[in-house]
Amino acid sequence: MSQVTLFSVDGFTATEIAGVDEAGRGCLAGPVVAGACILPAEYDLPGMTDSKQLTAAKREVLYDLIREQAVAWAVGVAWAPEIDDINILQATFQAMGRAVRGMKAEPKFLQIDGNKTIPPYALQCDIPQEYVIKGDGKIPAISAASIMAKTFRDRLMVQLAKRYPGYGISKHMGYGTKDHMAAIQKFGPCRQHRLTFRGVKPEPKIQEQASLF
């Protein structure tokens, strides 16, 4: 078993603290997904770190282990229409709030990956929190949340690829790859595309000025 030394943040122990992270914020298609996770005092999650540093196969293994061992975990989702309606930052906050509220155990403190905390209107509860820059590689609970969000989203995108063929969604997971951009140009956006994102929304046409001569 991996031994975790109990620590405190503003008086809260590790088992009272939830890590929170997101996946898919920079994509052109699909939802933004947030993960929230409270880890126990002892766990066996070998190799856990920032999800971006892990292979898909390793994330899959850790995803199942985290669900088995965590004190509590949940994911929150904000779909493309909501992203277009309120913008990606606000949709990310909403997904994070949904993840936190979805856990079976209520955390007493939150550690958020990045440089922003979750606004009260998205969290809908009064929990002290702090942001941690690059926290997904520093704090185990945030690493776990990162893996939860990334793996859940990847599994979802594989299913969406079957519903929306032709875009190669299961390969690029909605990111703006060359092949993905070419598919958008060929077929136009589908219901999973973020219509307000550059690369999806039509480029404005530049009207030629009438010649004075």
Would you spell out the secondary-structure blueprint of this structure?
Blueprint: E1 2-3, E2 8-9, E3 12-13, E4 17-23, E5 32-38, E6 42-43, H1 56-69, E7 72-78, H2 80-86, H3 88-102, E8 109-113, H4 120-123, E9 129-132, H5 140-163, H6 169-172, H7 178-187
Parallel strand pairs: 4-8, 8-9
Antiparallel strand pairs: 1-6, 2-3, 4-5, 5-7
Stated plainly, the CATH topology is called Nucleotidyltransferase, domain 5
Structural class comes to alpha/beta
Which term fits the overall shape? globular
Strand order of the largest sheet: 7-5-4-8-9
EC number: 3.1.26.4
Catalytic activity: Endonucleolytic cleavage to 5'-phosphomonoester
Protein name: Ribonuclease HII
Family: Belongs to the RNase HII family.
Q: How would you characterize the overall build of this protein?
A:
The chain has seven helices and nine strands. It has one domain: Ribonuclease H-like superfamily/Ribonuclease H (Nucleotidyltransferase, domain 5, 2-Layer Sandwich). Residues 1-7 have low confidence and may be disordered. 37% of the residues lie in helices and 18% in strands. It has 213 residues and is α/β, with parallel strands linked by helices. The longest helix is centred in the C-terminal third of the chain and has 24 residues, at 140-163. The protein is globular and about 55 Å long. The termini are far apart. A five-stranded mixed beta sheet has the order 7-5-4-8-9. Strands 1-6 form a two-stranded antiparallel sheet. A two-stranded antiparallel ribbon has the order 2-3. Helix 4 (120-123) links the parallel strand 8 (109-113) and strand 9 (129-132). Helix 1 (56-69) packs across helix 5 and helix 2 (80-86) crosses helix 3. InterPro entries: RNase_HII, RNase_HII/HIII, RNase_HII/HIII_dom, RNaseH-like_sf, RNaseH_sf. It is found in: Cytoplasm.
